[in-house]
Design brief:
This protein is about 30% helix and about 15% strand. It has helices at about 50-70, 80-90, 155-165, 185-195, 210, 215-225, 255-260; strands at about 105-115, 125-130, 150-155, 170-175, 200-205, 230, 250-255. Strands 3-1-2-4-5-6-7 form a seven-stranded mixed β-sheet. It starts with about 45 loop residues before the first helix and ends in a 16-residue tail after the last helix.
């Protein structure tokens, strides 16, 4: 979804992650973070029990990628087909921490943060880059976010606390990765940041029409919390460095509340965002 070409126009293309979190880094084991997915290390001293546990993690991650790939196969673009694809791809790859069948995990798989960005929407914004994306767009700005289950795990509350540390923020942006692959968890975080008065923007490789037709309740919950949606896959042949906050001309900047009321995509006038001019 991202353009890899550098540009002097800081508003033309969303920023590349500068604070990338690695599963093996110290950041993932700080008190701020929760349980992090273990990585396999081949050492002679590793215990059999630990090796077996790591192998199970790899099999789980492999199965998740296979499920995502399967969801993207097939021909045609009818709402029914895309609804099925989206339902599969929005299932979080990490195991849910549940206490009952209807309890949703409050853990988000994170690729990185931008605590004070000016390239992912108007004004000073907090940007959350999620880990995992089924789109794999050619020329993607952040291909390291494609693999599911390989980020750092943060609770919704931890991220919310981090956002509130900066009193100068105007808004919050969910990017990635594909935010709608963790729709339930991000909808919960979205409710918290909206209650604080922040504008919420979401970058997605899906179109509004695909999201609107999806059968997943979590997808609709996240849409309802979203003020601005930048939708559509990044298309390298349609790259335009003069566009504000998007990389290719097929992508749209949408007024989500107006779109939901109308039942169809409503673009911002001249691509302006709701908070511009305030």
């Amino acid at each position: 979804m991202r353009d890899t070409s550098p540009t002097s126009n800081s508003t033309a293309t969303p920023a590349k992650i500068s604070k990338r979190l690695k599963p093996s880094s110290a950041r993932c084991t700080t008190p701020e973070s929760v349980t992090v997915r273990s990585t396999i290390r081949s050492t002679a001293t590793r215990s059999a029990a630990t090796t077996a546990s790591s192998a199970r993690s790899v099999r789980s991650a492999t199965a998740t990628r296979a499920t995502t790939a399967s969801a993207l196969n097939g021909s045609g673009g009818s709402p029914a087909i895309w609804s099925a694809r989206l339902t599969v791809s929005t299932t979080p790859s990490a195991p849910k921490n549940t206490t009952g069948s209807n309890t949703v995990s409050a853990v988000i798989d994170v690729a990185g943060f931008e605590d004070d960005s000016i390239t992912n929407g108007p004004g000073l914004r907090f940007v959350l880059f999620v880990q995992g994306c089924p789109h794999h767009c050619k020329g993607c700005h952040n291909p390291e976010t494609w693999a599911f289950g390989e980020g750092c795990k943060y609770s919704v509350e931890e991220i919310h606390t981090r956002i509130r540390r900066n009193p100068l923020l105007r808004g919050v942006t969910f990017s990635g990765g594909e935010p709608f692959s963790q729709a339930a968890e991000l909808a919960r975080l979205g409710r918290l940041v909206k209650a604080d008065g922040y504008e919420l923007a979401v970058y997605t490789g899906f179109t509004f029409e695909e999201l609107y037709a999806a059968s997943s309740p979590a997808v609709h919950e996240l849409l309802e919390q979203t003020d601005v949606l930048v939708d559509g896959r990044f298309e390298l042949l349609k790259r335009n460095l003069l566009l504000r906050f998007r990389g290719s001309s097929n992508q749209r900047v949408l007024d989500v509340p107006a779109s939901l009321r109308a039942g169809t995509a409503v673009e911002m006038p001249f691509g302006r965002w709701r908070t511009e001019g305030r």
